[in-house]
Amino acid sequence: MSSAQMHPNRRGSAIPASATLTISARARRMTDDGLDVINLGVGQPDFPTAPHIVEAAKRALDGGAHGYTPTAGTLALREAVAAELSASAGSDYDPSTVFVANGAKQCLHNLMQVLVDPGDEVILPAPYWVSYVPMVNLAGGEVKVVPTHIADGFKLTPEKLRETLTPRSRVLVLNSPSNPTGAAYTKDDLRALEDVVLAHPRLAVLSDEIYRKLTYDGFEHVSFARLSPEAASRTLVVDGLSKAYAMTGWRIGYAAGPPEVIAAAIRYQDHTTSCASAASQAAAIAALTGPQDPVATMRAAFTRRRAAMLERFDAIEGVAVHPPQGAFYAFCDLRGLGPLGEDDGAFCERLLEEALVAAVPGFAFGAPGHMRISFACSMSRLLTAMDRLASFIAAAT
Ligand SMILES: Cc1ncc(COP(=O)(O)O)c(C=O)c1O
Fold it and tell me: How far apart are the first and last CA of the chain?
């Protein structure tokens, strides 16, 4: 078939490639070509899923879990999610306020589809995770980016939020801890935003908490939903098993919030993908209700790597790094490097070609002049990558 005859429509043509997936694919091709590339572009833990979780999936398959489940997920999994969220988010969730999907990504997409009308504004603090913008565009919404800076700890302030809101504002996306910055909102930070949110009756908070169990230096994650019953009634909490339980390939995410919105998201899913995999759902129950020490072990490893990485950054002049309170990324401001750091795309291109280190340029997160590196790789590879980064900068400046 001649490809000249068939084109995607305008919507299809406008969907950008994911910068993070593109970098990882390129790093993988270079590795396949025999190059010793260290991939710090990755967004997944370098740990296997814990054996008791894998066993639960095997048992489910041996026991005949081969068919569809309810679209929203099995009752057992929704009960496990509701119980866990009620304990940690501090609000009362029951299974009817929860749905399960193929990853937090699908939850976020479904929710954008059922919350945002064409022309509605979605408030997005930058730096932001790469997929929010296409999700908003696919829902016909308009993205209103609010830049945040290293000096504010990359957090949205109530003043900035107040200035940004208009009668068309429909959704505020809060991602704490954040991908890409690792910034996390304290209870006081959230309380300061709460008054502004509650003063806008149309505004929903889409609270992406997928890194909430991976925090450092004793940082205690708080959900916006936990602030008050009013805040809970405006909040859609999104989380998933991918990061905290090293289960990216199992594709299980969940969301909880006001029942009418959740019911609409389930109807949307009824007609798009139906349920998540039955065996993965069984594994997710084991993850949420079983021993939590694999999460603690992984967090401890990330804590050590984070400390070592920050120490190395101290010795690199011209690169400012925000110490992440959560997630497994460091977001670096390259602009202190002069001309070398101004074009983050070119910087990352050269870093990959000349130093064999893959990192994601800040423009992908709405923050040109920056770069994201992931510390989801072994300590020895991370330290080698930091040596390569330091030598590359020393030679190039
Ligand atoms: C901030 C954020 N939200 C959501 C997701 C989606 O995760 P998943 O679909 O694997 O649950 C990711 C994955 O990188 C993420 O970083």
Answer: 50
What is the third-level CATH fold of 67-289? Aspartate Aminotransferase; domain 2 (3.40.640)
Inter-residue contact 116 to 168 (CB < 8 Å): no
For the segment 39-43, the average pLDDT, to the nearest whole number, is 91
Q: For the chain, which residues make up each domain, given as ranges?
A: 3-48+293-396, 67-289
| Residue of 112, 210, 237, 238 to mutate, ligand 1, most atoms within 8 A of C-beta | 210
pLDDT tens digit sequence for 149-205: 999 999 999 999 999 999 999 999 999 999 999 999 999 999 999 999 999 999 999
In which region does residue 103 sit, left (phi positive, over 0), alpha (psi from -120 to 50) or beta (all else)?
A: left
- Regarding the domain delimited by 3-48+293-396, which CATH topology (the fold level of the hierarchy) does it fall under? Aspartate Aminotransferase, domain 1 (3.90.1150)
Distance in Å, CA 334 to ligand 1 centroid? 25
Is ligand 1 within 6 A of the CB of residue 43?
yes
